[in-house]
Write a structure and sequence with these properties.
The chain has 217 residues and is α/β, with parallel strands linked by helices. 47% of the residues lie in helices and 10% in strands. The protein has 2 domains: 11-76, Corynebacterium glutamicum thioredoxin-dependent arsenate reductase, N-terminal domain (Helicase, Ruva Protein, domain 3); 86-211, Rossmann fold. The chain has a 4-stranded parallel β-sheet with strand order 2-1-3-4. It is globular and about 50 Å long. Keywords: Arsenical resistance. Pfam families: LMWPc, Phosphatase-like_N.
Length: 217
């Protein structure tokens, strides 16, 4: 699968993006064409390049985010019938609250529902106190990364849960919205994050019940 030449990138970065495009091309063969896949991949790459701390991981992050966006677009366009609820957790930096909610939801829902997360002003990394607090519950969110939301991701969600993004939170007709009022864990130590974590777990469990999704252990 050819990838658009990017003279602004190094040879290694171009090769990595070409590999990513091939991976996505195989996964979405028959669903999206080359132009759409490359547009999403390169758009995702440019998004992360603006605030990347470790450039070597950019192609991998771009591939992961492009995959999520393409799956969302497939759902919006009726090209994918997953049949399970999709929940989107949104906060300001996508580094603490929304990531903890995503972690609990993914563990408790298993393959019975899908969750994504995003932020209005994505941070450069996940809040280390949130990572440590979740690790105490046996949930590893260290491999996650702050990312924005996009129109297709919001439109693909059945439920949008907002946590402090205020007027920046997107509003699309036909979505179910919930606003969770929670303290921002930014700058807090693990001890102060634990109550926020516990509140998020309770809310996630209630959300799963409302969706008719059995919660795992």
């Amino acid at each position: 699968m050819p990838t658009t030449h990017r003279p602004d990138l190094s040879i290694d970065q171009q090769l990595a993006l070409r590999t990513a495009a091939s991976n996505l091309g195989r996964e979405f063969d028959g669903t999206f064409g080359v132009d759409t896949i490359e547009r999403f991949l390169h758009g995702s790459y440019d998004e992360f390049a603006q605030r990347a701390a470790v450039p070597n991981y950019l192609p991998l992050l771009a591939e992961r985010f492009a995959r999520q966006r393409l799956r969302a677009l497939a759902k919006v366009e009726g090209k994918h019938a997953g049949g399970v609820p999709v929940v989107l957790f949104l906060c300001t930096h996508n580094a603490g609250r929304s990531q903890m909610a995503l972690g609990f939801f993914t563990q408790l829902a298993g393959d019975r529902a899908v969750a994504w997360s995003g932020g209005s002003e994505p941070a450069g990394r996940i809040n280390p106190s949130a990572v440590a607090a979740m690790a105490e519950r046996g949930i590893d969110i260290s491999g996650e990364y702050p990312k924005p939301w996009t129109d297709e991701i919001v439109r693909a969600a059945d439920v949008v849960v907002t946590m402090g993004c205020g007027d920046a939170c997107p509003v699309f007709p036909g979505r179910r919205y919930e606003d969770w009022v929670l303290p921002d864990p930014a700058g807090k130590d693990v001890e102060d994050v634990r109550p926020i974590r516990n509140d998020i777990e309770r809310r996630v469990r209630r959300l799963l019940t409302s969706l008719g999704v059995p919660a795992g252990a």
